[in-house]
Amino acid sequence: MACVHVECFGHYKKWCRSRCNCCVHCHSTHAAADPSRVHEYDPSIAPLHRVRHVLSGASLGSSAVPCAGLRLQYSSLTQRGYYPGRPDRANQDSFYVKTQFQGNPDLHFFGVFDGHGDLGAQCSAFVRDRLTDILAGDPRLWENTTEAYRSAFAATNMALHDSEIDDSSSGTTAITVLVRGDTLVVANVGDSRAVAGVWDGDRVVAEDLSSDHKPLREDERERLRQYGAMVSGEEDPDERSWSDDEETYKPDTPRLWGRDFGLALSRSFGDSDLESVGLIAVPELKVVKLTANHSFFVVASDGVFDFLSSQAVVDMVSCFADPRDACSAIAARSYQSWLRHGRRHGRRLGRRTDDITIIIVQLKDLAEGDSTTYR
C-alpha cells in the first residue's frame, strides 16, 4: 500500500520527513515496481513494456556484522540497456556481492563495474573477477585496507593489459564498498558512484561516498593537461572551460581525447591507448565511520546517476521497506530519464538507455533481528 504522506515514485514535494513508520511501510510486500506505470509521470514517454524492457528480478540477502552490532540487508539488480538498433548487445555492467569476505564475518564486499567500448563487457567481468580474487588473498585487507586496495587496483589493471582482451579502447569503471566492522572503505575509479543515506533531523540526506572521475572535474582536468592531454567536447572541440554543472553540457560533456577516440572519464581500468595522456586506474579512497544515523548505502553505475542526483536516489530508497522494490523503482525511473533526455537532445543520445546496475545495502540494528516479512 502506498504511503499517504509521500509520492514515492514521482515528485517529492509531499515528502514525509518524520521518523514515524509511515514511509517505512510504503511497500511492505515485495512486488517489483510495475514498469508499465512509469509513463504516468511523463505522458510523452512510452510505457516500458512497449519497448521490450523488462526489469530483471532483484535479489535479497542478509548478513550480520557482529563486531559492529549491525545486520546488512541488501538487494542487487542489473538491467541491460535498451538499444533499438542492437537488440543483442550485451550488458556491459557487472557487480559482485560477497558477505563474510575472506571468511571474516565482519568483512563484506559490494562492487559495481561498468564496462565501455567494444569489449566493455569482457573488461568489466575480467576486472570484477581479478580484483576480488586479489583482495580475497591479501592478508593486509583488515589491518591496512587502503594499501591492499591500491595494490589490487594496480595489479588488476596490469593483468587486464596483459590479458587476451584488447583493452586499447575498451575498459571499465569500478566502485567498491567494503564494510569493515563499523567502517566503510570506498574505492573508486571512474564515474560509477556510492552514496549513503544519513538521518539529519527528520529527513534522510545524501552523503556522497565517492566523486566521479570525469574531465569535467577541474582537478582531474588539470591533472590530465599536465600530460599534454586534449580535453574538449565532441561537438564543440574549441570549448576549453567548464563549470561544475554537468547538466549544462549534456550531451556534449568534455572528453579525454586520444588519437582515435574520446573518453568521458579521467580514470578507468583498461583504455591503454589513453594512458600516455593521463588516464590512470589509481583509486580514490574514502573511509567513513558509521554512526547510528547511517541508514543505508547505494552502489550504482552511471546508468542511474547520469540523470538522477544522489539525493533523488536516496529519497527513493527511503520510500521502500524492501530494498528489492527500491532497486526496481530506481531502475525504472532511470530508464524513463534516459528516454526523456534522449528525446530532448535528439540524435546525439537517441531513444536508448544505458545499462543500469544497483546495489542497496540497509544498515540495521543486529539486536532487533529481522522482523519484516516480505512476500
UniProtKB/TrEMBL annotation:
The protein's Enzyme Commission number: 3.1.3.16
Catalytic reaction list: O-phospho-L-seryl-[protein] + H2O = L-seryl-[protein] + phosphate; O-phospho-L-threonyl-[protein] + H2O = L-threonyl-[protein] + phosphate
Any single biological process term in GO: signal transduction
Necessary cofactors: Mn(2+); Mg(2+)
MF-aspect GO terms: metal ion binding; protein serine/threonine phosphatase activity
UniProt KW Ribonucleoprotein keyword: no
Domain of life: Eukaryota
Domain PPM-type phosphatase, first and last residues per copy: 73-363
Alphabetized UniProt keyword annotations: Hydrolase, Magnesium, Manganese, Metal-binding, Protein phosphatase
Pfam families: PP2C
Cell membrane found in the keyword field: no
UniProt record similarity statement: Belongs to the PP2C family.
Protein name per the record: protein-serine/threonine phosphatase
